[in-house]
Design goal:
- This protein is of the alpha/beta class.
- The protein has one domain: Rossmann fold (3-Layer(aba) Sandwich), CATH 3.40.50.
- Helices cover 36% and strands 17% of the residues.
- It has nine helices and seven strands, in the order αββαβααβααβαβααβ.
- β5, α7 and β6 form a beta-alpha-beta unit.
- The longest helix is centred in the C-terminal third of the chain and has 19 residues.
């Protein structure tokens, strides 16, 4: 009987620890499928930062390094420069990358570091009980904004992809989502292209993935997907912000 579906080799056998409905597991699978298809599992090093995915080193079969909160791009920079024949990626959430790690991601991008970042944006701090993140939407209720995020008190949500696309060293910047089959396919294609950009030595690449957090949003998975489509996609439009016509 022909095999039509199986676990990517680049994923370990360890079951995911994520909450029901969380799409981190799906995004992990897309990264693993790309590593398999490009044949680079054995030459790739991933950097796990702090957040819901702090122990992603347990899920990927490639070499992994644990970084301090927000410092994954700095660690990845050291790895790429000391191991120029390896592919290096960071896997980071919005509380990690867009808050304590803002300086690291901005300067890695402006230096044109030849690394790939998978940036998961669920508009909230997931691991630490649902506080407001830099990407939390105006009006969104969190544990630290019980009456909704107010611009006059908390400022406005950060659009990371738009910001990084203005930097010369960033050569490929795309925002995707994993809310339906069509978008999952586009997300995988973007992740694959981001790794190809790195393999071609062109510079910094990042794929921002809009994700859901049913537990901290206080919704079931179906309602969470609807909320993402109706709210997050309006503030964070999907699409390519840089490098659309790159041939890799």
């Amino acid at each position: 009987m022909a095999i039509v579906f199986q676990k990517p080799h680049a994923l370990t056998e360890k079951p995911f620890h994520y909450c029901p409905g969380c799409t981190h597991g799906l995004i992990h699978r897309l990264v693993a499928e790309v590593l398999d298809e490009l044949g680079i599992e054995g030459t790739t090093v991933g950097v796990a930062s702090v957040g819901c995915t702090y122990n992603s080193y347990e899920y990927f079969n490639c070499d992994m390094v644990q970084a301090a909160h927000g410092r994954a791009p700095a660690v990845a920079t050291g790895l790429r420069r000391s191991l120029p024949d390896r592919q290096i990626f960071t896997y980071q959430g919005d509380g990690d990358l867009a808050a304590i790690g803002t300086a690291e991601i901005v300067h890695a991008a402006t230096r044109g570091e030849k690394i790939t970042t998978i940036f998961v944006n669920n508009a909230i701090y997931g691991m630490t009980s649902g506080q407001m993140a830099p990407t939390t939407l105006v009006g969104q209720v969190t544990t630290t904004t019980p009456f909704g995020r107010k611009p006059e008190l908390h400022g406005y949500p950060v659009r990371v992809s738009e910001m990084l696309s203005t930097l010369e060293g960033a050569v490929y910047v795309e925002r995707v989502a994993v809310n339906n089959v069509a978008n999952v396919k586009k997300a995988k294609a973007a992740i694959k292209k981001a790794f190809k950009v790195q393999m071609a030595g062109l510079g910094f690449s990042i794929v921002e993935v809009l994700s859901i957090c049913p537990t901290n949003w206080g919704m079931n998975p179906q309602k969470s997907l609807e909320w993402l489509e109706q709210n997050m996609m309006e503030h964070y439009p999907l699409g390519n912000f840089k490098g659309k016509d790159l041939e890799v």
